[in-house]
Amino acid sequence: MSRLALASILVPAALLAGCGTDTIVGPATPSIAPSVNQGVDGNFAYTTFDVPGATFTNAQGINPRGDVVGFADVGGQRHGFLLRDGEFTTIDYPGAAGTDARGISPDGDIVGGYWLPGEPAVNIHGYRLTKHGEFERVDYPGHTNTIPQRILPDGTILGCRHDENTMNTMHGIVMARSGNWELEQSASMNNGATPSGRLIVGLWTNMQGVGEGYIFEDGVFTPFLVPGSTFTAAWDVNPTREITGVYRDAGGRFHGFVRRGDDYATLDVPGATATRAFGINPRGDVVGSYVAAGRTHAFLATREH
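^ thats the sequence. predicted structure below, dont judge the formating
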């Protein structure tokens, strides 16, 4: 475990953007005007944002406080980021060629992946960055690669492990204080869980080669597709069992979704050619990415009650 001062491992995004300021203000003014789309419990208002200087920004996780994590490409390199109280901070694992951030706990611990210079493109290793600024390696025993996707309040980490490829050798994993275990289904990835860990959601590819979302609850594996979709991936679930993720319609366009029970709501950022939802918090706030004019940007969708 590496114990470093927070200031030495979290570099202000302004430095990566070539800006002379010390603090970057977040999306106080959306890049598009807030727009309303009918949701499960009401209306969603969209706020879009980009890491300063980035050519690509993707928001992956959001905690109850509203802190957002994700990753962005700046200056030809991938960096993780934290957006807290309107300020961006970048996350780089020491010595890595690239870093992403995928999940954040209620206490502020962050999980994600990194890869080292000269490694094959398929290689990715896991880390946990504690709220105190300490990097810890996260490796699933006996396997080459680990992708941590989410971290629960008790420190349990969910994600996937794989070896020479990210399909046949990929299995959803859980790494907890009580021990590690994995799904028997291949080409699977555990992406989110309720705080108790009893209900897990994720994505997998079935025997027919179709990507489906799944719910794994009390040992029962239940795949699902958004009605009318040709592909579905579940990426997160909140304490009230609302599931968020991505689906592809019959025309090939990607949309975000929120599922409550058997009801679905579609998330589409206005003006986007594709929208993908990746994280949801207890309030039902959703984060993800969208494509417009050929570039990928991040969004936050909040309910208007």
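The two ends are 44 Å apart (CA to CA).
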